[in-house]
Structure formats: structure tokens, C-alpha cells
From TrEMBL:
Residues 8-336 form the FAD-binding domain. The keyword Membrane does not apply. The lineage of its organism: Bacteria, Pseudomonadati, Pseudomonadota, Betaproteobacteria, Neisseriales. This is 2-octaprenyl-6-methoxyphenyl hydroxylase. Keywords: FAD, Flavoprotein, Monooxygenase, Oxidoreductase. GO terms for biological process: ubiquinone biosynthetic process. It comes from Crenobacter caeni. Belongs to the UbiH/COQ6 family. Its cofactor is FAD.
Amino acid sequence: MSKTDLHAEVAIVGAGPVGALLALRLAREGRQVVALEAREARSVPRDARALALSSASLAMLEDVCPLPPGAVTPIDRVHVSQQGFAGRTRIDGADLGLAHLGAVVDYPVLVAALEAALEQAGVAVQYGCRVAGVDTLSRYARLRLANGGTLTARLAVLADGGPLAEALPGVLRRVHDYGQCALIAGVKFDQPPAGVAFERFAAAGPFALLPHGDAFVLVWTRSPADAERLSADPAALAAELQQAFGDRLGFVREVGEVARFPLALRQLNRVVSRRTAMIGNAAQTMHPVAAQGLNLGLRDAATLADLLAGAADPGEAALLARYAAARRVDSHAVVGFTHSLVRVFDGAGAPVSLARGTAMTLIDALPGLRRRFAGHLVFGV
């Protein structure tokens, strides 16, 4: 983008999955949209993450962006258990009348598909464009670009950009460092996934095994010291996983490249400011234990798109207030649930394990409770 003053009806900072969903929805309705993305065009990130999407999230994305054949691995059942103590929960798509509870897709594959969809839809995306700051005025928002240019818009939406939101009037970010890291690696057992995802509360930390083709993606919460040690020693990781998971799927036969990420909760005290709205990672980032971060962000984007439909002024204060109110319950419930899982249930010892086992057994034994719990995970609160 050159050093000139440009204007758009809606400017979106970040063209990842959440920002791209919003841009595609708004463009389909005839809105003039500009998306600003820091990475270069067609430089799809090399990223170890495999994204667990609920069936509702997958439907949102496929509504605007067909995914390539074979890119999606369905999740038909989620099996939740704990190491060394009784208690388990099984959640099936049939609990909600769904063919699949969700699916797993590689982050780079999804980003590439969305980039192609944005191009095909004619959405103006400025790649290699970093935003240095946002000024909110009564009639428009002004985005100050790192190259010296500016872009004004009737509504600015931050889907990414972290510190940008914190500089807005009245916006504060709550940060809680868990002092943990997420270990991520591809894992193969003797048996293939068969559509089942596993969530296990292990003594060393909770982990998820997400079906990914004929293998799994492991996401394991460990201490920083453990994460550093195991990321350098796949054989040790395989041995500790085998001990924590048992032989339900046979032996661990292969562990791929291991990545690690520090874990923290970041949540804004408010998701709107004058002429500006925050969605996705700009509004909240959370622990991956319940795989809800991206699903929550996509619901942010879909809700904002719904509210903007037909609005004469997309940055009107009353409209943004309705967006904040519409997202309050879902956002706080999911963030609170995830944080509670980490703080309360990520623990060892008989009292915690017995309470955890009782809770899982109740959810499993009571169909109404199980359906409600599953519904919240798939569709939000």
C-alpha cells in the first residue's frame, strides 16, 4: 500500500480465518471491505497447528470457502477420561443429531483456501501491510500504517493486532500467564483414529489427540521445562505419552516434528470502542485445553456480519453496542469454562481426580446434560 490516504466502508486488520470469514460475509452483501494482512501474499505460514473446528464453525467456513477434498478429518466422537482414576464421558454427533461433531483441518491449508476465496470474491487485501495504530473519531476510524500511509473507514475491525486494541479509549486487556506450554506433534498409533478425538487429564498435564488422516495431532499441556526437554527428544515424548494414555490404540509407532507454544489467557474488558470492534484473537486468546479459541472467534465474526447486514452506518455506536451485548454471554462463558478446566481440573491427587471423575460420569450418564454440554461446545452459549 502506498503512502496515500485511502478510505473503505469497513477495514479489517488481519486476514486469518476469523478476519477472512468476516470479509467474505460482508463482501457478499455488497460492502466495500479492505483487509490488512501483515504476511505477504501466498506466503502461507508453516505452522504445526491443526485446528479443531466444531460442525457449526465448519459450516460457517464452508459457506464462504469450499475446502479442498481430503483437507478435513471428521470428528464423530469425543472421549474424555483421566489417568489413574475412574470416570469418563463420551460425546457423539448423534447426541445433537449431527453426522459429525466437528473436524480437524491444518492451519496452512485453511489459510490458503481462504486466501483464494478472498481473491475470487474480489475482496481488496493489502498483504505485507502492518498497522501501527488506530485513532477513533466521531465519523470514522483512522488506521496509521507502518509505511506512513493512512486508511480511514466507517468501521475498523481488529481480528488480530494485539496491542492495537489496548491503545483504544477505555480498553484494557486482562492477561493470565499459565506458566505452561503446549506441545504439538503428529503421532501414529497401531490403530487409526476412526473418527474419535481423545481428551485425557494426565498426571503430567491434560492432552488432546485429534484425528488427522490416519494419525493424530497431539496437543499436550506441559511445564516449560518439560516442553523444552520433550521437544528435543521425540522418543521420550512417545514413551511418556504411552504411559499416560495406555494401550487403547496399541503402541505409539511414530512421533513427528514437535513444536511448542507458551500459554496465556488474554481477554479484553470490552470488545468495542468508538468506530472499532474486536473479534477473534484481538478480543480473546485462551488455553487450548477445550479447543474453543478459534470456534469462539468465528462466532464473533458471524455475529458481527449478521448485525451489519443492511446497516446504513456500520460503525454506528448503537450497532456496536448490540454486538458487544450479543457476544458477552458466549465469550465470558467459554473463556470462564476453559480457564476453570485449567485451574480446577488440571491437577493431580485423589480429591481433584475423584471430583473430576464424578463430573464426567454424571455428564455421561444423563443424556439431557450431555446434549446440553455438547451443544455449548458445538454452537456456543
